[in-house]
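Repro case for the chain-ordering regression, as requested:
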Amino acid sequence: MAVYEKKYVWSVLLRLFHWAFALSIFTLIVTGLYINWPWTNTWMEGSHQFTMATMRWIHFTAGMIFICAVILRLYLWFFGNKYERLTDFLPINGRNVKNLFSTLLYYAYLTNEHEERAGHNALAGTAYFFTIILAVIQAITGLYLLYPENSFFVSLGSIFGTQQEARFIHHLINWYFAWFILVHLYIVVWNSIRNPEGLVSSIFDGHKFLHKK
Amino acid sequence: MAKRVVVDPITRIEGHLRIEVLPENGYIKDAYSSAQMWRGIEVILQGRDPEDAWMFTQRICGVCTTVHAIASVRAVENALNLEVPYNAQMIRNIIIAAHALHDHIVHFFHLSALDWVDVVSALKADPYKTAKIAESISDWKLNGAPIFKAVQEKLKKFVESGQLGPFANGYWGHPAMKLPPEVNLLAVTHYLQALDYQRKADMAIAILGGKNPHIQNLAVGGVSTAVNPDNEATLNMERLYYVKQLLEEVREFVHKVYVPDVIAISAFYKEWLQYGRGVDNYLAVPDLPQDPKGEVFDLPGGTIFGGDLSTVKPIKRFGDPYFVENVRECIAHSWYRGDWTRHPWEEETVPHYTGFKPDGTVDEKGKYSWAKAPRFRHENEYVPMQVGPLAQVLVGYALGHELTRKYVDRALSMLSSLAGVKVDVNALQSTPGRHLARAIRAQVISDLAIKQWEQLVDNIGRGDLEIYNPPSYPAGEIRGCGFHEAPRGTLSHWCVIENGRIKNYQCVVPSTWNVSPRDTKGQMGPYEASLIGNPIADPEKPLEVLRTIHSFDPCIACAVHVIDPKGEEIVKVKVL
Amino acid sequence: MDRSIFMGGIPKTISRRGFLRACAIATAAMGLPMEMVTKVAEAAENPQRPRVVWLHFQECTGCSESLLRASHPDLASLILDLISLDYHETLMAAAGKQAEENLEKAIEKGDYILVVEGGIPLRDGGVYCKIGGRTAVEILKKAAEKAVAIIAIGTCASYGGVQAAKPNPTGAVGVGDIIKNKPVINVPGCPPNPYNFLSTVLYYLTFKKLPPTDKWGRPLFAFGRKIHDHCERRPHFDEGRYVEQFGDQGHRLGFCLYKVGCKGPETYSNCPVIRFNDVEVWPVSVGNGCYGCTEPNFWDTMTPFHKRLPNVKIPGGKGIQASATEIGKTALGVTAAAIAVHAGVGIAKKLATGSKSEE
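-- result from build under test --
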């Protein structure tokens, strides 16, 4: 029988980030796609409706939560616990570079070697890093679109060009997040089935299970 | 060697045109017409959505706004075999008609009248005599001695005040100016009034098109002008009657001022009726379609060869093979790589500028213009064609088009009585004849504009509010040709669409037909040919060249498919 | 000035162009030799009126044309009462070398407002636009040196315009891309609303300073807010009532044009307020969406004009393009399929090596 060690990995703050991020992304994708293409019956009159305005309000509210979540994660990159810091999961040392490739091989069924890690594996960590960068871009373009008369957001957002160019980037990243959710959920479930760490439960209670050495 | 006269550029036209003539014993013996710029919008269009093409092509020219937009949507519709709802045809027709009226009025009064009218001499006129002359040719409400007197005094005041601004003069006092002072005063007065009336035509276009210049209400498959008499944000009664009133005011101006003035001036210059015939093959396409498919038209089109009206052959519908299969463009003397004669769908556009000879004159054997040389197949030969209002009026006359015949006959009988000689329809094939034909075309169109309006309103009254048939693009390659009888003549856009994207796009425009340089066989284009035999009294002031060239209403920005870089907009008369 | 006189006493303003032409006529009417014209012009010069030099490069004349359709102030009073137009290629009646000399002289004197119409080509040394043997960029740099203010009229002069659309065969750019050491006021539009140009000039003349501008050099009084904010159809947008296709029920009821590609939500301009041609219209009011013609690069970023967002160019696809939404959906679909395959492989492997993992 294998002996497992229960290890506290994800702090309350990180879990708070995760769920705020997850729920806001989901809401933002749904309302964002609606705002891009309002598909509801658009000729209906004579009843109370404020569809687009409501969708936009939800989108903006979720956007604020999203921004808070992103700021929180940026903070944890530098001031979180051992596993939450950038240094733990970016392929910036030999161990992580090796882990990045071994994880790729492992996911491709080319090896059965699996390095159990308390934090992110290097592949996931790298993906999350780029996701947060995209999230920052998404936040900046979003604020730029929302406050087109505010000189601070305009000078920040116009790094990405005109309103239309920023909107285009915002739209493309929206699709990235939809894609990310799909891949993320699959890999997490796949890992949970194959490996003992308990990836799914860890994001609820913060604990992972590792073979005792 | 005889001295060559280079006029570069010809001013009071749109764009940059250089004319080089060889005078001999006071008459022009040889001529070369050279368009002086290229920018290539075809390159930018490749790979784009065919539904956007009309917006791009409209920016070819801000003076000929609307015409390239109309031809472009028709080209794509032709490729897709897409019908256009009746209302959309009528709305487009009103825009086409109003633009033609605007353009013809501006061309005659503001761009070319000064070739014939000596403004200086208007100061010497007796306003009462002017009023008498005016009364004898028209009952226009703004013809009266007090008005003429006021204009004259205003002119005098300007001179005395010294508030002249930066404007300089032209060929005033030239020996070829022949109008009596009274007629000059009349023309100057109408010149000022015309400014207001051309603007009314623009306002009518804006009501339907959203703005002017550069309308924004077209779509492949119709228009986007919402029609609903029972809504406040659509084309409703108030908007429709606003359009009608504007069209009626412009119509009155055309009937009572434009046409009589042209006839009167032509009568004074009757000896010019023998000059400027040039290429006497004529090409016009039908326009103002009356049905969704484009098989019935209010303005007829067709071809005439050798100036003989009995050779007329009609062009009957959009995509008529007689037109589509017979157009070619030749680049033997044009600044593009190669030496071919091709169908527009098969063309490529690779610029190859060779400039002029070291002494600044045209290299007769080589390339000398940015314009291509469009040609039309006739009896297995590719021949140059003259396009423009004259071509259309002649074709209409030959085909027995009722309104055209009526107004041509009326104008000719008035001209005959004023000039004191019998003038027949063949006299239209001349420099003043082209002006007269343009005025007659404006007269025909001013009536037809109201007709289109009535048809639109009748159709709306029947409850038909359709304006748009959505296009859908098949996989694979399709080809389309859209034509439009623009104010300056036959305009055709040719597109090749592959999988819903533009693969090739060519515009064969009226001014290209006319400005065309020689082709492989050395046949001259209409400008060149029309100058041969013209008198030229003073090579330092080649007014006669301007007269004949202006009678075509050149638009060089269009001729070379460019966004006009406005080369040298100054008149440079060099005698080499 | 009483201009009703030309219309036979009917109280109607004669068009601006009328006065302009009248000026040309008046000069002509003097019938003086060329050298005298210069003297007359000098005498007529009013030191009170600020001087303006107007250059034309790659343009379609649409901007000048639109200016001729303005009525308050009309072009005539602008030119006769407010400014002294020292150089304008299309409005000057003629004067070959004289015109060039006028330009030289005006530049020498300095202290003029420089107005530029049209884009400036830079590719191949700028040969695609030459005037009097000099390239557009040379002329612009020279004229800009001594200008007190520079106004770019139209999207071409502001940002390069239609000729700068991909692949930009002549390398066209706007004035602001060349002149970096001076403020350039951009008055974009294709063509711009004439009043936005006139107001810029009048602002400068009246307040003796340039109007405050936005990030893209556009005066705030005309381009401070998006079209969307002042659009008369905005309530329909908020309430979710849209035109789905030209000519449908929503179109006939004047609903929002967002779904047929209106770029009002991303375009800064005062079109819905100022309107066009003195007949109270603008594209949205007749039923067509805004095409975003006051925005930089609008020929590339706002096309297809009847769609919400530009297409994505697929790299290496020989110019194949697809909409962002299509690409997003395709990516999701492909990923889902890949996941299915991946999961399938995993299950198959597990079945094959089932016993081992039981451990």
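Ordering looks correct now. Residues 4-18+64-211 of chain A form one domain.
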